[in-house]
Amino acid sequence: MFKKRENVLEIEEGNLLSPKFDNDGLIPVITMCSKTKDILMHGYMNVEAFKGPNTTFWELQKDNKIIGKVTSAVYSPRLKRNIALAIVEIQQSEIGNKIEVNSNEGKFNCTVVEKPFYDPKKKIASSS
After folding, report:
1. Could you give the dihedral angle defined by the CA atoms of residues 42, 47, 50 and 52, in that order, rounded to the nearest 10 degrees?
2. Contact 119, 126 (CB under 8 A)
3. Domains in the chain: how many in total?
4. For residues 1 and 50, is the Cβ–Cβ distance under 8 A?
5. Distance between the two ends of the chain, CA-based, in angstroms?
6. Which of 10, 24, 71, 73 has the most CB atoms around its CB within 10 Å?
7. Measured over all CA atoms, what is the biggest interatomic distance in the chain, rounded to whole angstroms?
8. How do 59-62 and 81-88 pair as beta strands?
9. Rounded to an integer, what distance in angstroms lies between the CA atom of residue 25 and that of residue 32?
10. Quick one: pLDDT at residue 128?
């Protein structure tokens, strides 16, 4: 899918997109706020992610009623679990609310948590 790196200049000038995947076929990525430039999320993606934008939005259900959709999801190595951003009905957005995700791999339970997942001041690490 990507041309092999010939020289550093091609990369530095922005003439070539040639990401370096690790031994597991992954590359680190971040999501930033376009206005504040704050980092909102860190994760990893494989070459499949470059084939196009996410167009499959998993349904969120509560008591067998559709209440929203997952807009992005990724595995968090720090948290050792999957994390996601979603759009949900305001009545279902309370922290701690239990919701069911209906993905193409089956149904999974999830919990509404505070955002952001990113911990720039390392408060989580310093509290343990």
Report:
1. -110
2. no
3. 1
4. yes
5. 42
6. 73
7. 56
8. unpaired
9. 23
10. 55
> What is the CATH classification number for the domain harbouring 99?
2.40.30.110
Lookup result for tokens 């206005």: 35
* Mean pLDDT confidence for 100-125: 78
Q: What are phi and psi of 82, to 5 degrees?
A: -80, 145
**pTM summary value:** 0.51
Residue ranges in 13-121 assigned as alpha helix (H): none
Q: Supply the range of the domain harboring residue 87.
A: 59-115
- What's the CA gap between 7 and 11, in Å, rounded? 7
CA–CA gap between residue 100 and residue 4 (Å, rounded)? 42
pLDDT of 107 strictly over 60: yes
CA distance to 1, 18, 43, 50, per residue, from 7 (Å): 18, 11, 27, 22
Residue 24 in domain: no
Q: What is the 3-state secondary structure (H, E, C) of 66-81?
A: EEEEEEEEEEECCCCE
